[in-house]
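Query structure, 387 tokens:
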């Protein structure tokens, strides 16, 4: 049996944030906690949300203690704030970190600590049994798509490891995709987060499982990103393109319920050990990973994979090319057009770092759904080619 899951209710459009008070009032909610980070408070984005809600007599207090890679302490503090304020719901405002922190706070306000017992790898999802307060998600980046996901990632204090929490109840009740909220995003972050969304679509599509719905979403997501990310970089105030990028990010996260692949397995240690932005790490690894994947696919005559690679080539070449050998070159051009320059060496990664990065990549679980088995040597080879 296969299980297909699709996202929560999405309100999409310029200034869709203005509909939030009505949504809250319809549900009888009047006093909420906004989970965000200090950067968004400083940029005045949280103020905008408060202004819209207070005009309709809804109280919103700010909890802005979320780190860029959320830690257990962020959750503990958020739970205390929620309980002290006797709030009747949560709003997550920000990128993937604010989303993940809010989703975890959401279940920890009705479940006993310690957080570690809910670790998905230990079957912790079965311990999430109590009703959860409502959660509304307002992403301000177009990348992770965590706003439509059923899991969160938090670094636990005791182990220092990024730990996944999973439960269908973690999915926000309503997602608001308001393109006006991503306008102030710097070009580098826009490009890197956009390439994270692209990698989600790309890797999910290549996963060898029968999921035509997710495949269709992944292909459309890649098309949207290919058409709109360079536009957003050239014209940061292009609300139409910004909106399509927000939508594409949710599509990437919806599609990757199929799984991901070797790119994410290499990107994770590049962020954890060398501090690279997750989306940038993905982008820098795409050409060498695809060169490797195309070569193996041809050598082993993997028909389904070959067909998918051809399909992506057609999209990226605007139907002018079908030979997938051209795909890494085409994607290089596309990624360059977003302002990203290739070479891990430019990010202070040297050949000496590669053995450890290859080891950590093989220990990461994402490559288990790559369309064929990846070895440590394969990772080593691909990382060297990305230097
Ligand atoms: Fe990602």
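Result returned for the query:
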């Amino acid at each position: 049996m296969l299980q297909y899951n699709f996202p929560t209710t999405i309100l999409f459009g310029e200034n869709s944030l203005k509909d939030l008070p009505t949504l809250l009032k319809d549900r009888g909610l009047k006093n909420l906690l906004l989970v965000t980070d200090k950067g968004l408070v400083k940029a005045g984005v949280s103020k905008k949300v408060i202004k819209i809600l207070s005009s309709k007599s809804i109280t919103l207090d700010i909890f802005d203690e979320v780190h860029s890679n959320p830690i257990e302490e962020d959750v503990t503090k958020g739970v205390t704030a929620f309980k002290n304020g006797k709030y009747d719901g949560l709003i997550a405002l920000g990128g993937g970190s604010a989303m993940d922190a809010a989703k975890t706070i959401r279940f920890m306000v009705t479940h006993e600590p310690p957080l570690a017992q809910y670790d998905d790898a230990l079957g912790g999802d079965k311990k999430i049994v109590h009703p959860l307060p409502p959660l509304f998600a307002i992403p301000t980046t177009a990348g992770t798509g965590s706003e439509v996901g059923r899991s969160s990632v938090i670094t636990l204090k005791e182990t220092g490891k990024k730990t996944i929490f999973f439960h269908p109840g973690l999915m926000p009740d309503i997602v608001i995709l308001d393109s006006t909220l991503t306008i102030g995003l710097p070009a580098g972050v826009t490009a890197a987060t956009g390439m994270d969304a692209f990698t989600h679509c790309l890797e999910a599509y290549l996963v060898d499982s029968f999921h035509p719905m997710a495949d269709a979403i992944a292909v459309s997501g890649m098309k949207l990103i290919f058409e709109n990310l360079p536009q957003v970089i050239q014209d940061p105030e292009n609300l139409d393109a910004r909106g399509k990028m927000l939508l594409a990010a949710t599509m990437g996260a919806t599609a990757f319920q199929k799984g991901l692949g070797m790119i994410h397995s290499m990107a994770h240690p590049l962020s954890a050990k060398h501090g690279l932005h997750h989306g940038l790490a993905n982008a820098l690894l795409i050409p060498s990973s695809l060169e490797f994947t195309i070569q193996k696919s041809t050598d082993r005559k993997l028909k389904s994979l070959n067909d998918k690679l051809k399909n992506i080539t057609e999209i990226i070449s605007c139907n002018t090319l079908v030979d997938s050998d051209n795909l890494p070159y085409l994607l290089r051009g596309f990624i360059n057009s977003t302002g990203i320059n290739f070479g891990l060496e430019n990010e202070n990664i040297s050949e000496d770092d590669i053995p450890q990065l290859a080891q950590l990549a093989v220990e990461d679980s994402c490559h288990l759904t790559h369309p064929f088995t990846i070895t440590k040597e394969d990772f080593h080879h691909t990382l060297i080619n990305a230097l």
